[in-house]
Amino acid sequence: MSHFTNILKYAKPYKRYAAGHIISNVFFALFGTLSFIALKPMLDVIFDKEKTVPTQKPEYTSLEKLADFAGDYLNYQMHQFTGGDKSKALMFTIGLIVVMFLLKNLFGYLANYFLVFLRNGVIRDIRNKVYKKTIELPLSYLSDQRKGDILARVTGDVQDLQYSFLSVLELIVREPLTIIFTIIAMVYISPQLTLFVFVFIPIMGFVISKIGKSLKRKSDRVQKEQGMFLSTLEETLTGLRIIKGFSAEAKFYETFQESTSRFYHFSNKLLNRQNLASPASEFLGICMISVILWYGGNLVLNDNSNLALDGSKFLIYMGLAYNILTPAKAISRGLYNIKKGGAAAERIQEIIDTPNPLKDKPGAIIKEDFNSEIRFNNVSFKYQDEYVLKDFSLTIPKGKTVALVGQSGSGKSTVANLITRFYDVNKGEILIDGTDIKKLTTNSLRKQLGIVTQDAILFNDSIKNNLKLGNENATDTEVIEALKVANAWEFVKNLPQGINTNIGDAGNKLSGGQKQRLSIARAVLKSPPIMVLDEATSALDTESERLVQVALENMMKNRTSIVIAHRLSTIQNADEIVVLSKGEIVEKGKHAELIAKKGVYQKLVEMQSFE
């Protein structure tokens, strides 16, 4: 129930809809009960039962005699309307029943009307909360998770909440009040007969709880398996070119089929257990009705007894007893849904409650500009067990270009991940203008940085909107100027819609060099004082590399740049080249100085000259 309480917290902004829902349900339950009681005068007319009619308008005296007052008042009004004509009396009672059912269904509709806004609002807010937390969490969290599992939580699990936990909101007021009002009427008609109902209610509750005990565990298996096949689907769509190129369609299909088969079996077990709720509660309800028929029938037949019932009261009582079955079944389904939704709520809450180690500290500083230098002081970092960067110290003055080179796994890209604070250092500190970046707000830190990665990450949108990611207020003229700096305007101007051309999913309508130049243009448009270039040309052919290299040189003018390079020909003009090996600095200097040393850098250059 703790998860149910957590989910209900999201209903606070929709209190007015909740109030309308509750009030409507109160009247729905009231008129639902009165619609059965209104049958009594009609049955009296049909059974030709003589009833003493009050000659004067009855007056209300006390709450204890409310039922007698209601009956006498109804008889008085019916007599005034019909003048004792039984045919008219029958029409009057039928009209009264129609009005009661009309009011019942009107308030039922209003209750559902308010619930729509309440339920959909809560679902929207939960989905937004999960998405917001997902993009706030560090890359280290997301690298440990399957994308498909996160997709399943944002879509399937939240949807499960809508039809499990939140469907119970409909039952919280309506069904219990229907049962309470009905039982009050039943107690008034026959207290002895009503005792049998209370004997059966605990039995029904016990059986239902036994059936629903394993629903949460079964539901959790279904949701996890859904995450598995969604992950396979996401990986398939992302790597379809490779899958087809290696003729691996059958292998991926087999993996997907195995997952959906497990999902099929888990879902069958879950739904069959869930489907047992309604027939079990209905069978128990019929058992209760059977006992009432036996005992109540004897009370009607033994009309000489003090406990005797007349026929019309007994029929009304039976209708009221049956009226309990529908809300009782709904409540039993609701209890199942709470158990089923518990697994979904737990998986959603797991994301929401995950602590963010990179969250801004209280009183974090907002950095507006960059004035002097970037300094790494004895920085050590590890992703898992082994340190990939060890006692790394480096100072980068403003306006200088520093290149990081070394073999794969030497720690070059880790430096980029740390300066952008995608990860936090384990030891040491990174200072910008003498301030530890941990003391800065993450947003203001990243506003000082422009990032161009090896993989040009673009989105299924227009060229203009992709570039404006870093500068929402940029004009079309500024977008075009950025494209010119990035050496990209030459191909963009020839596209059908120019900067408004949609580039497809991940920019797949463009070549690798074109995508990279757009990512450079995006960084140019942002116009940050510090540029971080993480192997921006390593995946390109020679011609594309030349065009991109010119774009990079244009972009780096008058900026502080950290260049992580695989192709050493691209960084020969850097102010300082830092050679890394196994997470440590082994050489530093300009290109000519390092060549003269005939050390690690020269070996790297010689190796590439034969590529």
UniProtKB/TrEMBL annotation:
| Xref: Pfam families | ABC_membrane, ABC_tran
Repeat in keyword set: no
- Localization: Cell membrane
Where, by residue number, does the polypeptide cross the bilayer?
A: 18-39, 89-111, 179-208
Its GO CC terms are: plasma membrane
Instruction: Write down the membrane topology.
Output: Multi-pass membrane protein
Task: Extract the SUPFAM superfamilies matched here.
Answer: ABC transporter transmembrane region, P-loop containing nucleoside triphosphate hydrolases
Domain ABC transporter spans what residues?
374-607
> Entry's InterPro entries?
AAA+_ATPase (IPR003593), ABC1_TM_dom (IPR011527), ABC1_TM_sf (IPR036640), ABC_transporter-like_ATP-bd (IPR003439), ABC_transporter-like_CS (IPR017871), P-loop_NTPase (IPR027417), Type_1_exporter (IPR039421)
Reading the lineage from the top rank, the first entry is: Bacteria
For this UniProt entry, the molecular function terms from Gene Ontology, in alphabetical order, are:
ABC-type oligopeptide transporter activity; ATP binding; ATP hydrolysis activity
Its keywords, alphabetically, are: ATP-binding, Membrane, Nucleotide-binding, Transmembrane, Transmembrane helix, Transport
The primary location reported for this protein is: membrane
Q: Locate the ABC transmembrane type-1 domain: which residues?
A: 22-340
Q: Does the keyword ATP-binding apply?
A: yes
Q: What is this protein called?
A: Lipid A export ATP-binding/permease protein MsbA
Q: What is the native source organism of this protein?
A: Jejuia pallidilutea
